């Protein structure tokens, strides 16, 4: 019962992290304009995402434009596009596999070993999904920080970390922790003096019935006793 509850909680958190990763992919706030030095113009804020850049005005108007050429983009943006798309696909695959391996579902029938292996695979896929989200987000953050402290970069080209970067870090952490918890919900059961990973319990439905042993005569001091009427 405890493992089932842990599976449901970790699966729900993992799905939440996957939805957050989808939002990070779509949001344009990966890089935001920095107001430093003599640049005190705050009527416009520039956002740069992996698919488009936007200009937000304090009046509430926003204009967005997609990038004209993918090959002209910097390497971190190109890698972020590829890895975030892979993360979204792997997140969908992780949800599908984990649903089949959870105790509350009827997939794989009563085969506890198969369900344990499927649940473990789903947890590992969630961890890989979190890594696919963590790499591009951290790469973009490193690029922004290096450009910000680089004196050769003009002030108008300096950027700060946007909200999508922090949301991406939170998504990656939730996905990896949830995947680790989901992978650890297969308890250890004893078999032939050793411990293996799998669900507690054993099915005797397919166990063949053994033939009863013939009765043995009662002996005393290795001499058979005689029957008396």
TrEMBL record:
GO terms for molecular function: structural molecule activity. The keyword RNA-binding does not apply. The chain crosses the membrane at residues 79-104, 116-139, 166-189. Residues 206-229 are annotated as: Disordered. The lineage of its organism: Eukaryota, Metazoa, Chordata, Craniata, Vertebrata. It comes from Liparis tanakae. InterPro entries: Claudin (IPR006187), PMP22/EMP/MP20/Claudin (IPR004031). Keywords: Cell junction, Cell membrane, Membrane, Tight junction, Transmembrane, Transmembrane helix. The keyword Cell membrane applies. Gene3D superfamilies: 1.20.140.150. This is Claudin-8. Pfam families: PMP22_Claudin. Belongs to the claudin family. It is found in: Cell junction, Tight junction; Cell membrane. It is a multi-pass membrane protein. GO terms for cellular component: bicellular tight junction; plasma membrane.
């Amino acid at each position: 019962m405890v493992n089932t509850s842990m599976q449901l909680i970790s699966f729900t958190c993992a799905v939440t992290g996957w939805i957050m990763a989808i939002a990070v992919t779509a949001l344009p706030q990966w890089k935001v304009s920095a107001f430093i030095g003599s640049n005190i113009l705050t009527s416009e804020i520039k956002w740069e995402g992996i698919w488009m850049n936007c200009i937000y005005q304090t009046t509430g108007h926003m204009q967005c434009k997609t990038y004209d050429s993918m090959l002209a983009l910097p390497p971190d943006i190109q890698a972020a596009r590829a890895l975030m798309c892979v993360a979204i696909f792997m997140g969908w695959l992780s949800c599908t596999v984990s649903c089949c391996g959870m105790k509350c579902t009827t997939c794989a029938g009563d085969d506890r070993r198969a369900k344990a292996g499927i649940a473990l695979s789903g947890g590992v896929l969630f961890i890989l999904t979190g890594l696919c989200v963590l790499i591009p987000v951290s790469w973009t953050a490193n690029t922004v920080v290096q450009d910000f402290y680089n004196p050769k970069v003009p002030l108008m080209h300096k950027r700060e970390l946007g909200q999508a970067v922090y949301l991406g870090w939170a998504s990656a952490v939730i996905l990896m922790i949830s995947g680790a918890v989901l992978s650890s919900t297969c308890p250890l059961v004893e078999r032939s003096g050793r411990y293996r990973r799998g669900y507690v319990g054993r099915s005797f439905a397919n166990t063949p019935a053994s033939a009863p042993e013939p009765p043995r005569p009662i002996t005393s001091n290795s001499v058979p006793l005689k029957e008396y009427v």
